[in-house]
Amino acid sequence: MKSTIMSEKIEPFVKLRAIEPEDLDILYQIENDISLWNVGCTNVPYSRYTLHNYIADCVNDIYTDRQLRMMIENDKAEVVGIIDIIDFEPRHQRAELGVVIKRSFRRQGYASSAVRKIIDYAKNILHLHQVYVVADADNVGSIGLFSSLGFQSKDVLTDWLFSNGEYHNAIIMQRML
């Protein structure tokens, strides 16, 4: 009888940490990457001055800021991306997640590792009841990532996102913690 051994993909190590002043250039690059604007609500460039003030003024308290932004580092202490908890709603104990991985580090498992860590943080430290994402219905990579992490598609928002001159449907994906 032939036995089959399933190989599991080993996710890379990631560390989530607060934004530091030294992250200004990375934040500037990511926030001003026009190709990412279609997945968020940004449609104007941010100045270094604005981002510098954001870093300086951020309390890093989710109850004060109603959001939490963390840098994602790999095992070599390289910043590979940013992960966010936004639209924090303390009364209902829910928040939206967002993750951006720098182009040179994509498809290496960093997003999955970072989302797992932020979910653990949201559940065990923030005591959230649920987290959700809003993904473009055409973004199969994002939908696949969150589906693989236990998020379930809950609803389609028709013509929710506007990009490249046309409207796109969005999918709300939710995970109970």
Q: What's this, in brief?
A:
Strands 1-2-3-4-5-7-6 form a seven-stranded mixed beta sheet, with helices on both faces.
Task: Note down, in words, how this protein is organized.
By secondary structure, this protein is α+β, with helices and mostly antiparallel strands. It has five helices and seven strands. The chain has helices spanning 24-31, 48-57, 62-65, 110-124, 140-148, and strands at 15-18, 68-73, 79-89, 94-101, 130-136, 152-163, 166-176. A seven-stranded mixed sheet has the order 1-2-3-4-5-7-6, with helices on both faces. A hairpin with a 4-residue loop joins strand 3 (79-89) and strand 4. The longest helix is centred in the middle third of the chain and has 15 residues, at 110-124. The protein starts with 14 loop residues before the first strand and ends with a strand. Residues 1-7 have low confidence and may be disordered.
Could you name the key traits of this structure?
177 residues, globular, disordered N terminus, 33% strand, alpha+beta
Give a topology summary:
Blueprint: E1 15-18, H1 24-31, H2 48-57, H3 62-65, E2 68-73, E3 79-89, E4 94-101, H4 110-124, E5 130-136, H5 140-148, E6 152-163, E7 166-176
Parallel strand pairs: 4-5
Antiparallel strand pairs: 1-2, 2-3, 3-4, 5-7, 6-7
Helix pairs in contact: 1-2
